[in-house]
Write a structure and sequence with these properties.
The protein is α+β, with helices and mostly antiparallel strands and 285 residues long. Helix 3 runs antiparallel to helix 6 and helix 4 packs antiparallel against helix 5.
Length: 285
């Protein structure tokens, strides 16, 4: 036995029988059954439009691209950690007077970085007999560390009757701080790129990391010039100087940051540079 349904308009007048597969909403216009089925299965147009919007504004990354970005981000993070380790420590340069300059029992050594300097009294008996100068600074002894007053009162520091050049020291410190700021901005761009799955943020991130690497190396060069100016300020006490392990961290950090920025720049390209430079040969040929 078949049942016939009639369709009524908004005023209650009968228009005609409903077509097969048509669902009449209470008090409303007829709706197709396919639309209701689409809503029941969850295939609405809202989710699809959102995904297409992401694709139109920036290329959506695949799982392989996401893995490459995370690997390049790890390289950049290594550079950031090395920069923080170098900037936060005071073993940029070590200064040492001759072992027998003061007396035959103790000698004086010093080391400083961007923010503070330390003088250390060492026992001559603990020093290698073949070494002519006092040191190294890692030997046990009485240490006295003070922060530089470049950024507070503007006073120069005096070590071994030699005077530091505050302008060069301040410039080196400011370059290092600005490089850290660029690293933070680059990390934010990479985080947004991974969370939003948009490759567009890789380009500003690559610029931030490359510039931060060059600024770190420039800070190292400026600091080295400040050391040379410090040594030339007075020649009363002969000093032996050598760059220490903090400078090694800064140099490696600058190189790693530049490499990380270049990797992000290559990942941001719409094509693979390896496939463009080395095209694969056709299997038929």
């Amino acid at each position: 036995m078949w049942s016939t349904f009639f369709v009524t308009d908004e005023e209650g007048r009968t228009v005609g029988p409903a077509a097969p597969g048509t669902v009449v909403a209470p008090g409303g216009a007829p709706q197709a059954a396919g639309g209701l089925a689409g809503l029941m299965t969850g295939r609405s147009t809202f989710g699809g439009n959102k995904r297409r919007r992401t694709t139109s504004t920036g290329h959506t990354m695949s799982e392989a691209q996401e893995g490459k970005i995370k690997l390049a981000f790890f390289v950049a993070i290594v550079g950031v950690v090395l920069t923080v380790l170098g900037v936060g420590t005071e073993f940029w340069v070590e200064l040492a007077a001759p072992k027998s300059f003061y007396n035959n029992q103790t000698c004086l050594a010093a080391h400083y970085g961007l923010w503070k300097g330390c003088t250390k009294t060492l026992w001559v008996a603990d020093i290698d007999p073949e070494r002519e100068s006092c040191g190294p600074a890692e030997l046990p002894g009485e240490s006295n560390c003070t922060y530089f007053k470049f950024f507070t009162t503007g006073e120069n520091a005096v070590l071994f009757q030699k005077t530091t050049q505050k302008n060069l020291n301040i410039a080196a410190a400011m370059l290092a701080l600005f490089s850290l700021f660029l690293m933070v901005m680059g990390a934010i761009c990479i985080t947004m790129s991974l969370s939003k799955e948009i490759l567009f943020f890789l380009k500003p991130a690559s610029i931030c990391f490359i510039l931060s690497g060059f600024l770190v190396l420039l800070s190292l060069l400026v600091f080295h010039q400040s050391v040379l100016a410090f040594l030339a300020s007075d020649h009363t006490v002969p000093l032996h100087h050598e760059l220490s392990w903090s400078v090694s961290c800064i140099g490696c950090a600058g190189a790693v940051l530049i490499v990380g920025g270049i990797l992000f720049l290559l990942l941001a390209l719409p094509y693979s540079p390896w496939q463009r430079c080395l095209p694969q040969k056709d299997s038929s040929s």
